[in-house]
Specification:
Length: 482
């Protein structure tokens, strides 16, 4: 049972994100409980928050429930309630059926509804108020991701004493796409309330700066956006800070004898094929799962791979299951997997092991160790931490990472086998090349990849961001360090 904290406690560091690191998880018999939430954001921020004495403000993942603040696994949790209507309009609607597809290069068509926008404004205000209540005088508030882009401005208006950071975990699209958004000015204005706005890739920061120039005409110099404020100019920094993982933690996990034994067991369970290929994604249309299955299916059809020497494990964790585009995607993927298994599996070898579940970190590390080829074929992805987790787990300096150019991780992980997932022939060739790559080349590439992931881990990422934030906030007008 989590410990209660006092509802009026204030903190010098406050993280605000739509989803808390834990989701409320009630047993069928009504027993209350909490489980780890899905997605990259939580994966990245959890270790930092455990180290800092801060509070995490966010939603518990269920409708119409109010929870008092409590402590979970060394983190102070401040839940923000959402009603069923707000979940539909702010979360499933505006966040995940307007912004998500728009920011991921309209892979799926975004839907624009004025009611959804109104709910987005309303809910952003509630998060801003909750953050303001939890923040001590002069505290740092770090707002996360596309669901809360209006919070920086709302916070600055009510609490000019705060140091405000924002980090966008997903891509920021080119202006030609962004400009579709009927509320494009309000969103930019919301973000510019922050002292520092962080993006995954340099290209994302560039797209944002361009949108600022086009919509507001403000001057940008390098990473600095000059925001006029009365007679003064407030400097906002907008630049890239590529997010990472707890690389050391993943390596430790992978080195555990029980995890290694489990990796062996996984391979045996698959009938010990020569090559195990692995995909690990939230079940999302941005991840390129269909393209991956198509390529794998054609390789089996053409006899370039056979089920006795190659098997694909696809972990697709459930996500946003009430949003129509996600339902359709699930149906399509499950139809494709069923067909391919029907056509190519034998009694002793399954073509595709499809798992519609999320798994704990231990099981993930075992899967990474068991996989000769890791397939990250996203059509668009802010970073993709799965790619980094795979690399961090491979202390044996083996395994090949096939990585989409359209994932943020491609900027750093240059020694992977880079692919354009839209090019099915190219993807097939890359998969075969990965399966056949000589040991020496695998090791050479993996060593280089590991160096990068170890050097620039999530602790470096947050330290970089927070140093930039403190540095910039001290020179803003009205805030002096004397
Ligand atoms: C991505 C987003 C996060 C989000 C996560 C899970 O990683 O950047 O903001 O929390 O997906 O999605 P969900 O909608 O379940 O929170």
């Amino acid at each position: 049972q989590p410990d209660q904290t006092h509802p009026d406690d204030v903190y010098s560091m406050v993280i605000v994100s739509n989803r808390l690191p834990v989701d409320y998880d009630e047993q069928p018999d009504g027993t209350p409980g909490w489980k780890t939430s899905p997605g990259g954001l939580v994966t990245a921020l959890e270790p930092i928050m455990r180290a800092a004495d801060g509070a995490w403000v966010g939603w518990a993942g269920v409708a119409d429930r109010e929870f008092a603040p409590f402590e979970n696994d060394g983190i102070s949790i401040v839940p923000v309630p959402l009603s069923e209507d707000e979940i539909q309009e702010y979360y499933e609607g505006f966040s995940n059926d307007t912004l998500w597809p728009l920011y991921h290069d309209v892979i799926a068509p975004p839907t624009y509804h004025r009611e959804w926008w109104d709910a987005y404004v309303r809910v952003n205000r509630r998060f801003a108020e909750a953050a303001a209540r939890a923040a001590d005088e002069g505290a740092t508030v770090w707002v996360q991701d596309y669901q809360l882009q209006l919070v920086p401005k709302m916070l600055r208006e009510t609490r000019p004493d705060l140091v405000i950071g924002f980090f966008n975990h997903i891509p920021f699209p080119a202006y030609g796409i962004y400009s579709q958004l009927p509320w494009r000015r309000q969103v930019i204005e919301g973000l510019l309330g922050a002292d520092v706005i962080g993006f995954q890739r340099q290209a994302d920061a560039g797209n944002f700066q361009r949108a600022v120039r086009r919509l507001y005409g403000y001057t940008t110099r390098g990473a600095v956006v000059e925001v006029p404020e009365g007679d003064d100019v407030r400097r906002v920094i907008a630049r890239h800070f590529p997010i990472s993982i707890d690389a050391e933690g993943f390596e430790q996990l992978a080195r555990r004898p029980d995890v290694q034994a489990r990796a062996k067991e996984i391979r045996e369970g698959l009938g010990n094929p020569k090559t195990v290929m692995l995909g690990v994604d939230r079940l999302d249309y941005t991840k390129g799962i269909r393209h991956r299955l198509k390529a794998f299916g054609e390789l089996l059809r053409d006899g370039r791979l056979s089920v006795s020497d190659a098997s694909l494990v696809q972990v697709a964790s459930p996500s946003r299951e009430r949003v129509e585009t996600y339902r359709q995607l699930r149906d399509e993927i499950e139809l494709t997997v069923g067909r391919l298994n029907g056509d190519y599996s034998t009694i002793s070898h399954q073509a595709i092991a499809y798992l519609h579940h999320g798994y704990p970190r231990e099981e993930m590390a075992a899967l990474y160790l068991a996989a000769d080829v890791m397939l990250v074929t996203a059509l668009r992805d802010g970073m993709n931490l799965v790619a980094k987790e795979y690399v961090a787990s491979r202390f044996d300096e083996d395994g090949v990472l096939v990585l989409s150019e359209f994932a943020g991780a491609a900027d750093e992980l240059r020694q992977s086998v880079l692919v354009n997932p839209h090019d099915i022939e190219g993807l097939k060739d890359a998969m075969v090349a990965a399966a056949e790559m000589p040991r020496k080349e695998r090791a050479r590439r993996m060593r280089a990849l590991r160096r990068r992931v170890r050097d620039y881990d999530v602790a470096r990422w947050s330290a970089d961001f927070l140093e930039t934030l403190t540095g910039n906030a001290t020179i803003r007008p009205g805030v002096r360090d004397d």
